[in-house]
Amino acid sequence: MAEVHLSKIVKRYGSLEVVHGIDLEVAHNEFVVLVGPSGCGKSTTLRMIAGLEEISGGELKIGDRVVNSLPPRSRNISMVFQSYALYPHMTVRENLGFGLKIAGMTPEDIKPRVDEAAGILGLESFMDRLPANLSGGQRQRVAMGRAIVRHPDVFLFDEPLSNLDAKLRGQMRVEIKKLHQRVKTTVIYVTHDQVEAMTLADRIVIMRDGYVEQVGTPTEVFENPVNTFVAGFIGSPP
Ligand code: ADP
Ligand code: MG
């Protein structure tokens, strides 16, 4: 059964429809990348899955629950944003544990989760530092750590690497892939970067103007693009 199931999902802002009835099934532990040009509806779709944006039409299921009207907290989803808003006055350890503390967990229960996330992300030697004393890549890892500690069923990433320079972006891409292999979780990842999509995805979803143009493995899409838009976007040979 699909872990995340979008059925005819629509988003309207007033009279303007920006997502036009998207169907998508994401399997348990699958890494799916939504890719497409700026403005095609990637973030809007992700935010509807996260519960940060109201769904105008269609049905969203996570596991076997219809979650259309459930608040974000009840969906057991974690989202990592491009602007990793760490709390500047808190150490890495405090940043990692803060969400769990808010959720009412005891320090005894928080510590092992924070230590586990720190181990996965290689943050052990930075735990007492403030965000100002971290590099961009380290900060991004802390942001991911904050998602990991919650043990979500589904991870959502919205262009998490676009603030980083090219070299670091390459390194973080490898880390995210490793993270997925270690943590074994379902991931929906948004990017406008074709290379990022092709290297990370089990399957990629190519979007244009609020529609899904094609879904497939990177190889399928590259070798058999359904139209010239997909071919051009992915860089398939003519
Ligand atoms: P992407 O993430 O693919 O760049 P978005 O999902 O952010 O695209 O945006 C999709 C479309 O919806 C764009 O045309 C954008 O201008 C529009 N849009 C996004 N947010 C709003 C909003 N709050 N009000 C009106 N239009 C919006
Ligand atoms: Mg976006």
UniProtKB/TrEMBL annotation:
GO terms for cellular component: ATP-binding cassette (ABC) transporter complex, substrate-binding subunit-containing. It is found in: Cell inner membrane. Keywords: ATP-binding, Nucleotide-binding, Sugar transport, Transport. One of its GO terms (biological process) is carbohydrate transport. Residues 4-234 form the ABC transporter domain. Belongs to the ABC transporter superfamily. One of its GO terms (molecular function) is ATP binding. The lineage of its organism: Bacteria, Pseudomonadati, Pseudomonadota, Alphaproteobacteria, Hyphomicrobiales. It comes from Martelella radicis. This is Multiple sugar transport system ATP-binding protein. It is a peripheral membrane protein. Its main location: membrane.
